[in-house]
Amino acid sequence: MTRNRITFIFALFWILLLPFQSNAQTSDDLFNGDILQEIRIYIAPQDYATFKQTNFICARQDLEALAGDRISTLPRIVCDFAIEFHWTFQGRDITLPQVSVKSHGKGSRSNIKPSFKIEFNRYESQNTFLGLRSVVLRADTQDASLMHERVAMTFFRKLGIPASRESHTRLYINDQYAGLYTIVEDVDPIFLQRNFGESDGYLYSYEWVFPWTFGYLGPDASGYSPLPLKPENNLIHFDSGPIEAMVRTINEAPDSQFSATLSQYIDLNALFRELAAESFVAEQDGIIGDYALNNFFLYRFQNTIRSTFIPWDKSNTFWAIEREIFHNFTSNVLTRRAQTVAPDLIAIYEDTLRQAADVAGGPGGWLEQEITRESEQIRQAVYDDTLKLCDQGATGYLHPCSNDEFEAEVAYLIQFARQRADFVRAQLAATPQ
Amino acid sequence: MGLTLSSRFPLRLKPVVMHMLQKLHMFRVLLWLLIPAMLFAQNPNVEDSSADLPIQSSAGPLSMSFKNRPSLRIGEFANVDVKAKWHFDFRGFSPPIFNPPGLVTSLPSSPETFLLTKARVGLKGKVTKYVDYEVERDLRRTLGEDHEYHPWKDNYVNLNLRRWLQFKVGKFKMPFGMEETAAEDRLDYALKSNVSDTLTPSRERGAMLHGNLLKGNRLDYDAGVFRDDGENSGIHGIPTAGRTYAARLTGEPFRYFRVLPKTISHVYLGVAVTRGRMFEGLNGVKGQTFSGFTYLDHMYVRGNRMRIGTETAWAEGPFSIKAEYIHMSEERKQQGIRGEDLPDKISRGWYVTGAWVVLGKMKASGKAPRNPLLSGHGFGAVELSARYDVLTFYSAPGPGLPSRSPRAPAILPNSERTWTVGPTWYLNRFIKIQINGQRQRLTDIERKAVLGKNLFSTGIIRLQIAT
After folding, report:
1. Residue B403 and residue A98: Cβ atoms within 8 Å?
2. Does residue A33 sit at the B interface (CB-CB below 8 Å)?
3. Tens digit of pLDDT for each residue in B251-261?
4. Helix, strand, or coil here: A341?
5. pLDDT score for B44
6. What's the CATH fold of domain B11-51+85-127+139-466?
7. Beta-carbon separation of B1 and A208 below 8 A
8. Shortest Cα–Cα distance, A208 to chain B (Å)
9. Model confidence at B39, in pLDDT bands (50, 70, 90)?
10. Nearest CA of chain A to the CA of B409: how many Å?
11. How does the average pLDDT of chain A come out, rounded?
């Protein structure tokens, strides 16, 4: 009898809590790819005007200061602004009254459709939103489909590579539709903890300041960090000695011990899997892209000298269906030496390419289904987006993008999904074992 | 694609080399400029007990004299005194990082140990008994420092019409703040309190009526109108408020009551007020540590900035005590994210300081020891002093939770509490050495000063040479 009463009370309690449990939000809800999200931000109009004035200056100034230039505080440049942040979840308005926004991006910066970095913890360091410290709202200004970034990152995660979670959102600024944006999970301590189970190591973001292909820049560690590897944490003691040692090893490790020696500094399995994933999606601006090293984070695990690479900014993926699988391998010191003296690493690379081809599939495969699903989800939001920009061919010139260009790019992506796997398999078959 | 800095990157050493060359050049110029001060400092005639009398090198209508400083006299008609003030600081910080002034910083820097913090030369004098004047310029920008935003210091003409009616026009310190308006070569510490540095206006261009309403400094007044709100509230040399009115009443009112003991009758009291209209924008005053880290950033303001200050001082023999309290309010009309009015930002500070001359004796003027070293036959004088100051920022209650956002309706309060202690060795009228230790504690450790750090220490050794 007593047991029945207890069971009844627990059941009643559970029923009462059910509505609350079903409504509890997590970051998975924000990055739920099945839903087109809706985000509204409110910013003082004068702040938004200043944001656009300083959009290009802030990033440049930051880099010049890192490079050791003496940058005067005059004229005053304001780079961070207070906003009110709203996210619509299951019809409910989730509000954060005081968070910070700053501009985001490099070559993709635009005042017509700017990208934003929303920092939930800028004013309260312990403050998080759904457990996140910050997110990036990418305007996808170089991509007519507005999908390269999300499709590529989703594909990476499907291959088991730690990569940012992403979803699309309609963004409203002061109640005006500002366009379709991609919500990108930031690479920060929370990302590190989720993916590696730790976050107290050293995190660096790669800043493209000159075309570097892992050539040795000398024994001075300051030649590697704070530029081009910009410290993202441990700002006071950003220990760049192990980076110098890593690059020296890439260049000077004996041929016979290349993998063994270098594996002290780099998680080579993870790196060559990531390189293969980038290669499969025909990344033009990645670790071994056409502009030399670019678009990655480097994380050195706590209390070790071993680092791993984390992908970032995949807007220039799906570059060409017939982009060769060993494209740019000879121009990068690490991949060139691996190709020459480390068949074990090349084997990882090729195995991952095969796996990628299997995962992507051919016509009707996962990649085509994902592209079709996403394009259907965002189509109306893209059509409503009168500020969308694109830059086919990465010419550096952003121009207004039409709905026809969007449809053409979607059609191209589907064609890519149907043909890429076969092309990659054919290249692998043609590669001497 | 990233931004192209490739042309600059390999030349990263260039700014360092240029900086070193500039420093070398600076030392050469310094040496030349300091020679007169050093010569006078070694002149034993200057600091006799009768040294305040002029020592004339020639007779006639045009003469040179050396009353504490080189002076050219044109009979009784006019005189021109040459002034110089030099501060050489050796500083150390804990944590050993700082934000260099005037520069955009992406990462904290290692602090420089040696700093030239004052390099002033000027002329001061009278034309008849009715006109005083002063011209003073800081030469640090000339010597290569690029963050000295206001090289022109006191530059004014003062008309002495009556004891109770004087008119001052030009650039000079606004009449607010006891520590701020004191002569800078006579401060008890190497650094003023952050209360003074942050909440008082300092120099500005303007016009002011002033004088003694009662004889014997029992009641003095100042009332003026100024073009902007003073250099202290400016941001990187740019003013943050327009026309500002200031008024101050000071004196020793207890001297009026003859029944009171002499000790009490010499208590000094003062009250002052300023009011000016701020320029709209990110122009609220900010809080920062002595090492240059911001712990309360500028906030968006619009409307009036108002200061109210009270001050008191007492001295008896080798002991002195001073205290000051300042309240500043800044309006934030229509500065909410959605354009709503926000509660005023309040900045409030006070300090108490005490000093004790433990070795030797000072002259009544407080400017120099009675038995100077080098220029006399004594040791000089050593004064021990200690100061405690508190500076707090907050707002009137507003909707929502308090936040650190620059547009927060309710500002999350932050404050600093600073102890400053150390001896000052007055070698003679021209030279003094100050050794100060400062310990600053912040209440809100999440402000971006240095995340997680709430204790900042500074050590300073200052050599001052002034004529």
Report:
1. yes
2. no
3. 998 888 888 88
4. helix
5. 31
6. Porin (2.40.160)
7. yes
8. 5
9. very low
10. 10
11. 92
Residues in chain A with CB shorter than 8 Å from the CB of B337 are 42-44, 82-84, 98
Q: How far apart are CA B155 and CA B206, in angstroms?
A: 11
Sort out which chain B residues have CB atoms less than 8 A from A70's CB and list them: 15, 103, 146
Cβ(A170)–Cβ(A36) under 8 Å? yes
**A230-255: pLDDT as tens digits:** 999 887 777 899 999 999 999 999 99
Out of A97, A99, A209, name the one closest to residue B2 (CB): A209
Q: Where are the domains of chain B?
A: 11-51+85-127+139-466
Residues B183-224: pLDDT tens digits? 887 889 999 999 999 999 999 999 999 999 987 778 999 999
Provide DSSP, A294-331.
-SEEEEEPTTSS-EEEEE---TT-S--TT--TTTTTTT
Asked if residue A75 has a cis previous peptide bond (ω within 30° of 0), the answer is: yes
| Backbone region of residue B292 per phi and psi (left: phi > 0; alpha: psi in -120 to 50; beta: other values) | left
B454 contacts on A by Cβ (under 8 Å): none
Question: Across chain B, what does the average pLDDT equal?
Answer: 84
Dihedral angle over CA of B138, B144, B150, B151, nearest 10: 30
Angstrom distance (rounded) from CA A98 to CA A95: 9
How many C-beta atoms surround the C-beta of residue A143 within 10 A? 27
List helix spans (H) across A67-145: none
pTM attached to this predicted model: 0.85
The pLDDT score that the predictor gives to residue A423 is: 98
For residue A11, the model assigns a pLDDT of 58
Structure tokens of A280? 């499969």
- Angle CA B229–B233–B238, to nearest 5: 80
B50: tokens are 């009768």
Q: For residue B452, what pLDDT band results from cuts at 50, 70 and 90?
A: low
- Quote the ipTM score: 0.85
CB pairs under 8 A between A and B: 133
| Chain A contact probe: residue of B7, B9, B332 with most A CBs at under 10 A | B9
Q: Which of B5, B336, B450 sits opposite A67 (nearest CB)?
A: B5
Distance CA B264, CA A326 (A): 91
What gap in Å lies between CA B166 and CA B130, rounded to an integer? Answer: 9
Model confidence pLDDT, tens digit, residues B436-445: 999 999 987 6
| Residue B136: count of CB within 10 angstroms of its CB | 20
